[in-house]
Design a protein that fits this description.
Elements: E1 3-7, E2 11-21, E3 35-42, E4 45-49, E5 52-56, E6 61-64, E7 70-72, E8 81-90, E9 94-95, E10 126-130, E11 132-133, H1 138-153, H2 159-182, H3 190-205, H4 212-219, H5 223-234, H6 238-256, H7 261-267, H8 273-284, H9 288-295
Antiparallel strand pairs: 1-9, 1-10, 2-8, 3-6, 3-8, 4-5, 4-7, 6-11
Helix pairs in contact: 1-2, 3-5, 6-9
């Protein structure tokens, strides 16, 4: 079984979608430059992908890669039909190696470093998409495929935006079903909730005097414990992150305002302008006065 991973930050774009009733045209090779997700509405569907043959039952999904040749290899005895949607993904889906590492051992849900306000990173949860699957919520998925088909047939307003929304809901249902079936837990540890509570507090009050006592009272836990938790998930200590938040705000004020260095220091919670300049240079590599020269036209 093949599995693919898509970053939570991926950009999906629906190119085309429709419901197809199997006919003679199905028995010649088809291919296109996009991913194509198939969901069987009436089965079976006898699908050949390159040199592999599959029998897909009603309710099953199948993901085709860009340019994969596919066709029907046997005519059904009764009615046979499926929905399909072609879409692009940026970045492309990543095939996971399950030959040496079982799918249940992949780290799908994790604490993301891009929750830090000062970080711009592509680190994100992975949406797990199986090549072939039979989701438990298949009737709900069929409704979304019908919505896709209707939007494409009757384009109104921001229909392309709605097409992407429907596709994302379909992928979410598949991924969630797979997650529930293959992973022992879908929840993150309790310490992660503490980390997020602390982050939220720091984001709101970084410009104030955040002493150990203030943080302990807010978190109702020892400073040593919350420091360990913060370091575990962020990779840095609390004081350094507070400095990063203050410098981030200072950079905006240096670029967009006429406030003096002293006034900016006070604005971000630092009374000593010399100390502010020292911290700023440690993080940015240049003193605030030089930074302003470089970024103000």
């Amino acid at each position: 079984m093949k599995y693919y991973a898509a970053s939570r930050l991926s950009v999906f774009d629906v190119k085309w979608t429709k419901q197809y009733h199997v006919s003679d045209s199905f028995y010649t090779y088809h291919y296109n430059p996009y991913y194509q997700l198939i969901m069987v509405s009436e089965g079976p569907v006898y699908l050949q992908v390159e040199n592999e043959r599959f029998i897909l039952e009603a309710g099953e999904t199948f993901l085709l890669n860009p340019w994969e040749r596919h066709m029907g290899w046997r005519k059904p005895e009764g009615v046979s039909a499926f929905f399909w949607v072609q879409f692009s993904s940026d970045p492309p889906l990543k095939e996971l190696d399950t030959s040496t590492k079982p799918i249940s051992e992949y780290e799908i849900l994790h604490a993301e470093k891009n929750e830090l306000r000062t970080k711009t990173t592509s680190d994100a949860d992975q949406l797990l998409i199986p090549r072939r699957f039979k989701p438990s919520q298949r009737f709900k998925m069929l409704n979304y495929f019908e919505d896709l088909d209707n939007e494409m047939k009757h384009p109104v307003g921001y229909f392309r935006f709605r097409l992407t929304q429907h596709l994302c809901k379909i992928l979410e249902i598949i991924s969630t079903d797979l997650l529930e079936q293959n992973f022992r837990t879908m929840t993150l540890p309790g310490s992660y909730n503490i980390y997020r509570q602390l982050l939220n507090f720091l984001h709101d009050f970084y410009q104030t005097d955040l002493t150990k006592e203030v943080i302990e009272n807010k978190m109702n836990r020892s400073y040593e414990y919350v420091s360990q938790v913060f370091k575990k998930y962020s990779g840095m200590n609390i004081v350094h992150y507070i400095h990063q938040l203050r410098v981030q705000r200072a950079k905006h004020l240096l670029e967009e305002s006429r406030l003096s260095i002293q006034e900016i220091a006070k604005e971000i919670g630092i009374d000593d302008a010399f100390y502010f300049s020292k911290i700023f240079k440690q993080i940015e590599g240049v003193p605030p006065s030089k930074y302003r020269e470089m970024h103000q036209s």
